[in-house]
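Recap quiz, item 2
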Amino acid sequence: MGKYIGKRILQAIPLVILISILTFTLIQLAPYDAVDSITTPDMSAEYIEALKEEYGLNDPIYRQYLAWAKKTLSGDFGYSIVTHSNIKEALSQRIPATMLIVIPSYLVALMIAVILGLIAGAKQGTLIDKIVDGFCSITMSTPTFWMGLIFLYIFSYKLNWLPSLGMYTTGQEKSVKDLVWHMFLPCVTLTIAFLPQMIRYVRSSTIGQLAEDYVSVQRTYGATEKNILFRHVLKNALLPLITLVGMSLPMLVTGAFVTESIFSWPGVGPYFLGAIRGFDYPIILVILILSSSLVIIGNLLADILYGLIDTRIKDLGNS
Amino acid sequence: MKVLEVNHLETSFAIKKNKFLAIRDVSLHVDEGEILGIVGESGSGKSVTMKSVVGILPSNGQVESGEILFRGTNLLQIKPEEKRALLGNDITMIFQDPMTALNPLKTIGYHIEEIIIRHQKVDRVSARKQAEAILNIVEIPDAKRRLTQYPHEFSGGMRQRVVIGMALVNSPQLLIADEPTTALDVTIQFQILKLIKKLQAKNKMAVVLITHDLAVVYNMCHRILVMYGGKILEEGTRTEIFDNPQHPYTLALMESIPNLESAEKSKLEPIEGIAPTLDNMPAGCPFAPRCKHAMAICGHEMPTKHTFSKTHSSYCHLNGSNPAHGGSDA
């Protein structure tokens, strides 16, 4: 197993490097001069040239890349070229804020999805399956921003039960109750957004497992349906979910762009969208690298976990 | 003593809202200590008959009428929990494909112990002891270690031994073996059959062996049923069927076996045509369209049972004028 993990990590490193080169190059190719975002029309050409020199924008691309990579690796993400604020500092507040709504929503969605997916899969074709399936179809085709706005309209504006924006009520920054209150709507919106894909995943996986030969063998040996579902099918059906969860790891950073924007949640979403609008390329680069690294790490973790649970894969890695 | 008795069983399948009878008026019985072979080609209904007995028909299948008596109890009329108490305990089954019969994420030990605990209500320790013993009985070496391993660590033949172990661990009275060796290569096939026969004789089990392999039937079975198109066409002891086949279909089956021992060059006689499908079942004898000896009556009227001895009977309009010995060729 150790050998397998080591092999997988070694494979991941060149991938991260490749992604960073690609992202960096793509930004360079954009029809836009990075210096434009810090200049104003009344600046002299000499001044602009000096700025370019200062930011290293006149160096060849590979030199710029190496300089940037070296800085990033040492943990220095640089400064926003628009607001001149420290990117690392900004992210260290915004990433936890995003996680604060993404993690609970994801976990709740996962739990609901396992229960509903398992029931729907086990009772395929019955009324309850059709209800679950209908719920999935509706929520899947509902845009998150629209759902968020509807929630805002009903629960904040009409009923005035829940706050409509931000993380805190001014003056109550330390209150956990106030925070949870503010988290409520964004979390519900996110949970509903996460749900349909997960339910469908669990449902089809359950149906697939129930059609396996070993299930009918168990029936022939006197196992009850409940017994088959919980002792045999459950673990096998949830196994592919590991991959889904692993691939969701980048959501910790990028999982709630739309929702955060609707609810003015001070997470990574609004920060990133703002950076794109202002062509604040140091921010764009850092977030892209971060999320793509998380994709790779997520896949790696999923593979390792898979190997630990399914011994067939572990043995494959050793041979 | 009859362990299993099936009377006038009819099983149907629903295909696109139409019902088709896959099993038509099948009656059979197996005695204690007896191996009954059911032979027939794919789609003849041999597997469906036994799936009806155990109650694992696919969701569109249904037993329409008849009775299935296990030691006198009609399995079609008892409660599901009473049925489950019998399954895996008094009635067990071995399947065609040992590669998929086991849950890939559970150890071999778990599979066997689960069945022991389910039916004997004993604790894990005692179940483990029994599981170890049964692996020894089905001749899997190094039983203690093997119990902790997963199915993928076993070869096909070894997995079939595990399944046989699962089937025998609660000392069943009836074992149904549905093509137990079809997925295995010939040398392993021989070992597995020898094992089944040995354990059957030791436990005085009744065994129903479903196969399309006549050599297997010849080596294993006391009595033989020949099925075709959902019906029994001929029934008899091993000697009666092999030495004196009465139905043209049985005869055709015999002729389609290659004979390696015969010195003279004999041509292999395949049976022309294909077996009828459910939605295209002939009105009379199901074999009539492919039968070399078919007469006008065969096409529209199902022949009645013709008895040759206490154990030997056949359903054919030739009524014993054995085609092998110069019957009508009309």
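Chain B has ten helices and twelve strands.
Chain B touches chain A through 28 residues (CB under 8 Å).
End of item.
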